[in-house]
Amino acid sequence: MMQRFLEVYRGAEVICIPSSSCVAMIRDHYPKMAAASGDVALKRAVKNMLPRVYEFTELLVDKLGVTDVGAFFPHTVALHPSCHSLRSLHLGDRPARLLASVRGLTLVDLPAAQECCGFGGTFAVKNADVSEAMLSDKVRCFLNSGAEICTAVDNSCLMHIGGALSRQRAGVRVLHLAEILASRDSKGTV
Predict the structure, then answer these.
(1) What are the structural domain ranges in the chain?
(2) Which terminal residue of the chain has fewer beta carbons within 10 Å of its beta carbon, N or C?
(3) CATH code of the domain occupying 76-181
């Protein structure tokens, strides 16, 4: 899959990926996998590609210098900073800065924001009971925040959290940060 990714994006000037866990996989593991292969050309291809890979908020804030995209989203939102966005990519306040520029949006604090939602790829399958307990804690934090919308920059977290909120019929929606930034109408529909 790494070789296919390199082939598909070989000529791309910029590679924007909307999921922090995917960017972390590329940055953290592609160099190790290429080195383990012993293939000099593969190592070079990975090395040349890495500077062109951006997580969505990195592209907007760091490369393009944009924090205000002209969005309007009249809702109360809580941000879940995913483990990969915090611990691998070190995105810092980039997602929050983008949300702070959205007209009509009220950004509320998420209690225990830096705690994992329990997904972690195969972790949720191999350690289902622990994952479910972590998810339960995260959902309780969202419900306590008073937010109408849960957002993040990691699709797997949103799927995990969204599933639990849906099963509980909590009335809280999940949206990727990009969906909020794409909202332009007075209803804040995406």
Answers:
(1) 2-63, 76-181
(2) N
(3) 3.40.50
